Recover the amino acids of this structure.
């Protein structure tokens, strides 16, 4: 699938998801290429339909885009709940286990998601897999002692790499932490792995989002289709 086709599917999923946001809602707005299309559509609705809602964003990038459309963005601690969060995902399987953090926003994404009544992911069909893990699993670690955390991951066979930017410097998250990507190929026991990662000292958060999502809107050539998580 070429990029233009993939973008068309992402855009269709984003437009479909935008319908879920209605007047007066507090909505979590995720991060990434698919969410950009969602925010574009919400911006259109604000301008053309007079939609009024309050947004909480999972990254500074999304905040800037939304505010450019005149969407009201507030700090997560200024709201007592979030009605719905719409975000992308790097992979999702049939058990509604997902990997997020390809855009290095996993910590804020997880904080917003955990405080949301309902979570919806928008993806193109290439992100739907049988078993997660082909996409490298992002882990946010504090810079102090990061080398030791990476060594520990190596010893456990997690095949870690420190994520670098185009200049060869470590990528920094919005909280100024590092991202270590684990090249696992497949994750057969995601709960066990999640527990192991979060209890490793120096790890702030990991990109495993397990059975958290209520619905996944998949951009499909035949039109957006919805996967509903019956375990939620």
């Amino acid at each position: 699938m070429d990029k233009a086709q993939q973008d068309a599917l992402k855009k269709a999923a984003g437009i479909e998801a935008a319908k879920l946001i209605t007047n007066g809602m507090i909505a979590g707005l995720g991060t990434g290429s698919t969410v950009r299309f969602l925010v574009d559509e919400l911006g259109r609705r604000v301008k053309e339909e007079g939609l009024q809602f309050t947004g909480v964003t999972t990254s500074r990038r999304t905040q800037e885009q939304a505010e450019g459309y005149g969407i009201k963005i507030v700090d997560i601690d200024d709201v007592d709940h979030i009605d719905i969060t719409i975000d992308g995902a790097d992979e999702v399987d049939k058990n509604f286990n997902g990997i997020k953090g390809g855009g290095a926003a996993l910590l804020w994404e997880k904080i917003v998601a955990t405080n949301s009544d309902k979570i919806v992911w928008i993806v193109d069909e290439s992100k739907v897999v049988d078993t997660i893990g082909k996409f490298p699993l992002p882990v946010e670690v504090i810079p102090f002692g990061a080398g030791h955390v990476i060594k520990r991951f190596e010893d456990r066979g997690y095949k870690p790499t420190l994520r670098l930017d185009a200049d060869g410097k470590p990528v920094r998250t919005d909280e100024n932490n590092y991202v270590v990507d684990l090249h696992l190929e497949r994750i057969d026991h995601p709960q066990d792995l999640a527990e192991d990662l979060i209890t490793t000292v120096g790890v702030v958060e990991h990109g495993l989002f397990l059975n958290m999502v209520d619905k996944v809107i998949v951009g499909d050539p035949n039109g957006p289709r919805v996967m509903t998580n019956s375990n939620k």
